[in-house]
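Researcher: Next entry in the queue.
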Amino acid sequence: MEADLERLTVKIRACRICVDNPVGRPLPHEPRPVLLPSSSARILLAGQAPGTKVHVSGMPFTDASGDRLRSWLGVSAEEFYDTEKFAIVPMGFCFPGQDAKGSDLPPRRECAPAWRAPLMALMPQIDLVLTIGSYAQSWHMGEARRPSLTETVRDWRTIWNTPASPKMLPLPHPSWRNSGWLKQNPWFEMDLLPFLRSEIRYRIA
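Model: Structure for this entry, 205 residues:
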């Protein structure tokens, strides 16, 4: 299983589907798939897609969003990048570019259909998926996802108590652009984050 995952990861890191066979406009720059799958970690971080800094570094969450996410999880950078503890597999592996307003575009539509199911099949040990943002929630949570991100995250207790494997915890994206959302929804930091941190610590101890 581990060797199969390594082989698949090599294929993904060489992927050029969004340039050579794109859905819609091709990726406007050279592809650089970024992911850290794991054959042993129990926790999967299912994010959106790399941003500009991650595209340069080649490592996930090497930006302000990563700092905030690590704070939410209550983990150090060393713990965060330990693939014995966390698998980090976004919905889109390459930086998708930006719109006219400077916001990151949605994850490329080619990624998930091509790679996500085979990746998940090779990580059966995952027992907690943190669905970060609406794209990850849509793919991983299916009918458990509510009509909006806010409703989905607010209903985290019901989602957690649903008999399903792996367990799911929905999160907003940790981008600075969501600072207003955090102020409008103080229950997230008061109620969800303490529970999240206890579940993380239980799995990485």
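Model: The longest helix spans residues 187-204.
Researcher: Noted, moving on.
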